[in-house]
Amino acid sequence: MTRLVKVKAHLLRGELDGAEHALAPVLETAPEHRVGPLLHRVAEGVIAAQVGGSTDPVVRRVRGSIAEFQRETVIKELTA
To answer: Among 18, 23, 34, 79, which is least packed, fewest CB within 10 Å?
Structure first.
């Protein structure tokens, strides 16, 4: 959760590479360890809303990573 705050701070400062770097460990969280509040924060757009409209390559990578994170979580929930 703290990392998500750090990601948001980087985004607000326009530091896309810093945001991507801070987000990486969050997105590497194993599906079985993704607690509700973490999933909620990612899903509600704490990150996605900040990067929503940009066409910057870093932003596109972050959006893709978030989508994969959410996809993996759904798959884990459906197969559990």
So the answer is: 79
Q: Rounded to 5 degrees, what angle do the CA atoms 54, 59, 65 make?
A: 135
What does the domain layout of the chain look like in residue ranges?
2-79
CA 53 to chain centre: 15
pTM, to two decimals: 0.76
Secondary structure (DSSP) of the chain: -HHHHHHHHHHHTT-HHHHHHHHHHHHTS-GGG--HHHHHHHHTTTTHHHHTT---HHHHHHHHHHHHHHHHHHHHHHH-
